[in-house]
Amino acid sequence: MTSILSGEKIASLTKRLISAKKQINSCSIDLTVRCISLVGLGGHLDFGGSEYKEASSSPLTPEKRTPDEPYGWWNLGSGNYLVQFNEILTPPEGSLIMIFPHERIVAAGISHPPIAVDKLDENLCVNLVVGQEGISIKENARVSKAVLLLQEI
To answer: Superkingdom, according to UniProt (predicted)?
Structure first.
């Protein structure tokens, strides 16, 4: 049997939340953007992994709209980007983290595919797809939701 943990329980297993008040939901937490990189050349993928190579990417620098603004913005044109999160989530063994696009990014015209992982650390990336309209994303914006499934024995 599998159960979905509450947002409070997921938060208790998470480091580097920006604002627990805004990020904790009934059965999920919101994940915030730490870094956005532009995808360059594609990687290599084989069955065994001996020829695996990640796609090349270049980190983008957010730009402040005014000098006194504490956080900058990424102004993204059409393309594929890699997003890394602020949060680090180490769940109990036998858990699965499901990461979905936040409903606000979908409503803003962009998305990323849902992914399932066994841990969320600073190296995890999701592939953000931006259409021809582009998008501006502020540092620490909530872009994804994490749901934690726990296998009960």
So the answer is: Bacteria
Length of the chain: 153
- Distance spanning both ends of the chain, measured CA to CA: 7
Instruction: Give the CATH number of the domain where residue 63 resides.
Output: 2.70.40.10
Choose among 35, 37, 21, 24: nearest CA to 145.
24
Angstrom distance (rounded) from CA 112 to CA 100: 8
pTM of the entire predicted model: 0.94
Q: What is the CA radius of gyration of the chain?
A: 16
pLDDT in tens, 96-139: 999 999 999 999 999 999 999 999 999 999 999 999 999 999 99
The set of residues, in sequence order, having a beta carbon less than 8 Å from that of 95 and lying 6+ positions away, is 118, 148, 149, 150, 151
Question: E strands, the chain, where?
Answer: 2-4, 14-15, 29-39, 57-59, 73-76, 79-85, 88-89, 95-101, 110-111, 115-117, 125-130, 135-138, 142-151
Total structural domains in the chain? 1
114 within 8 A of 126, measured Cβ to Cβ: no
Domain boundaries, position 132: 2-151
